[in-house]
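Private note to self, pasted from the team thread so I don't lose it. Backbone tokens:
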């Protein structure tokens, strides 16, 4: 990995965010393609014809209306087909994810002010949500659990999942279907890409329209989510994965190297950064990265090598204060505090999607079954956004019930406020209540 000086950090951050975080807005060709797909799904008769056409074209299998939804029997068979030990791992992960997210549940509440007026907040789950699970060559049962379980805990009435079949028409991965069964997904449609997002956003005769779409995907999926936002809600525009490790010269360098590679193997645009106060550690980690890289399969090795060449860096700093300053500026998706006293450093961290404390906590633990959600803000958006959670699947509605005493004591102030804004009917509507006589 390339070692850079602290005076090169700002250029590296700008380069990284410019090439990775801003990628969606720069691919105008992708946007035009996605707009065309959305328009066709929206305007084609019932939408299903467009879904079938795109599924045949992009996924390479002979889809028809009847085959778009995965039969319940196939889901049940997939659940039985996987080894019992693997089912137990999926169930363990689901249990831990449930236990964590239950603590995020919000309640409706009301109170009475000094005039006896009722004020409050009503919490209502969304009626129907759609979760996108990437498919093709890879399988992501963890994505199913991390998206569906918080929705179910929030009280969402119906969870719709879309995921593409492997190219050429193979069956959806048994582990993905099993995770959906465990998490309580109601319907699964074997469609993917921008067309699946369009179907969820606008609905077709076969695919129900949803209120919100969550889940990761490629640039076509991400662009489609951005374009349908406003018609439906979305979780976030997820970019390539990233990890940043802060190290104080303690711990095992080979562990740090493995953790950096755990993100680099995702895709060529993933970012892996080490910030350390130790030149010795920097050199050791760089050496171990090369050694471990050669143990990976050819596919993962090629991806990780390209990722490290483009976005892998080691930064040597004078102290941890400087390391934290740089980290907060980058606002990484995953932040490992690989230091002797991680809790002491925790209070200084302002921007990160998820923080992993100490050398015993690799980012991989958070990906699968630590409990917190692994759907995290990327591309510097941790400066202002949060991980996916139960609160993403609810609505907050304000509740206001004025008493006669409230009208008497606050009415004239409300009328005057309306006058200040030049809204005459507002003033009249409040004034009418003020004329009411008790009894």
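Design output:
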């Amino acid at each position: 990995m390339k070692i850079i000086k602290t005076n090169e950090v700002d250029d590296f951050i700008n380069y990284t965010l410019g090439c990775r975080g801003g990628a969606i807005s720069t691919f105008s060709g992708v946007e035009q393609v996605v707009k065309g797909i959305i328009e066709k799904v929206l305007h084609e008769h019932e939408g299903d014809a467009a879904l079938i056409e795109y599924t045949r074209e992009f996924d390479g299998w002979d889809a028809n209306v009847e085959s778009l939804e995965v039969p319940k029997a196939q889901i049940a068979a997939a659940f039985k087909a996987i080894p019992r030990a693997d089912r137990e791992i999926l169930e363990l992960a689901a249990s831990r994810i449930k236990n964590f997210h239950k603590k995020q549940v919000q309640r409706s509440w009301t109170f009475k002010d000094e005039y006896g007026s009722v004020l409050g907040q009503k919490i209502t789950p969304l009626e129907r949500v759609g979760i996108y699970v990437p498919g093709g060559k890879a399988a992501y049962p963890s994505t199913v659990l991390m998206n569906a379980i918080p929705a179910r805990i929030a009280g969402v009435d119906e969870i719709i999942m879309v995921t593409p079949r492997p190219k050429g028409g193979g069956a959806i991965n048994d582990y993905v279907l099993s995770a959906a069964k465990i998490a309580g997904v109601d319907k699964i449609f074997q469609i993917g890409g921008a067309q699946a997002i369009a179907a969820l956003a606008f609905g077709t005769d076969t695919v129900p329209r949803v209120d919100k779409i969550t889940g990761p995907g490629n640039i076509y999926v991400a662009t489609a989510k951005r374009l349908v936002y406003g018609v439906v809600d979305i979780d976030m525009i997820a970019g390539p994965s990233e990890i940043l490790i802060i190290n104080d010269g303690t711990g095992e360098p080979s562990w740090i190297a493995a953790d950096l590679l755990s993100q680099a193997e995702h895709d060529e645009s993933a970012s892996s950064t080490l910030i350390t106060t130790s030149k010795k550690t920097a050199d050791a980690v760089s050496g171990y990265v090369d050694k471990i890289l050669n143990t990976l399969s050819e596919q993962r090795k090629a991806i990780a090598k390209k990722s490290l060449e483009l976005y892998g860096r080691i930064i040597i700093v004078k102290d941890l204060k400087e390391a934290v300053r740089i980290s907060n500026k980058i606002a990484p998706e995953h932040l490992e505090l690989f230091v002797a006293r991680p809790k002491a450093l925790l209070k200084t961290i302002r921007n990160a999607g998820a923080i992993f404390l100490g050398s015993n906590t690799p980012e991989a633990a958070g990906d699968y079954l630590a409990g917190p959600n692994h759907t995290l803000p990327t591309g510097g958006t941790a400066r202002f956004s949060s991980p996916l959670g139960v609160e993403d699947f609810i609505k907050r509605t304000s509740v206001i019930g004025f008493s006669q005493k409230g009208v008497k004591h606050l009415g004239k102030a409300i009328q005057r406020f309306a006058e200040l804004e030049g809204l005459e009917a507002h003033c009249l509507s409040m004034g009418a209540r003020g004329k009411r006589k008790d009894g």
